[in-house]
Design a protein that fits this description.
This protein is an all-alpha fold and about 160 residues long. Helices cover about 75% and strands about 0% of the residues. α1 runs antiparallel to α2 and α2 runs antiparallel to α3.
């Protein structure tokens, strides 16, 4: 793994830990909270660094997810600051910021399962049922997490 790859991985872990703390403490990710602001900053760094990693030989799914992450982070930030959808803005903000977590998890689990254990990785293809199960599970957690956040937002409003 390159130095950029290590940096990206360490920062990605930090981002996920910050997201967990932010959601645990406040039920949401918000740029106005210390943990949320740190999460968003680190997420932008992680997505930006992902654009410089080419271990698959060219532009691929991980790069697309990095662009989606940057778009979701920016979209959530705009919704949070300018409330362009009025009272619905916090709901869309929760959807966008939560999507950044999903976009972190897909390449993270993919790389983990393709690299470890060293010499005999858990999977050898992107079509592996184990990998697809994780991706589907993360999607389910995303939907559940967004529903819980929307419920909490409704109670707060």
């Amino acid at each position: 793994m390159t130095l950029l790859g290590w940096f990206h991985t360490i920062m990605g872990i930090a981002a996920l830990l910050l997201a967990i703390v932010s959601i645990y403490r406040y039920s949401f990710i918000r740029s106005t909270d210390k943990e949320g602001a740190a999460y968003l900053l680190v997420t932008v760094i992680v997505a930006g660094s992902a654009l410089g990693i080419y271990n698959q030989g060219g532009f691929g799914v991980a790069h697309i997810l990095a662009i989606l992450t940057l778009g979701a982070a920016l979209g959530g930030f705009i919704l949070e600051r300018f409330r362009i959808f009025g009272k619905a803005s916090p709901y869309f903000q929760a959807i966008a910021y939560s999507a950044t977590i999903l976009f972190h998890m897909i390449p993270a689990i993919t790389d983990f399962l393709r690299r470890l254990p060293v010499g005999d990785p858990f999977i050898d293809s992107f079509e592996s049922p184990l990998l697809q199960g994780f991706h589907l599970g993360f999607l389910g957690l995303y939907v559940l997490g967004v529903l819980v956040q929307c419920y909490r937002l409704r109670s707060v409003s």
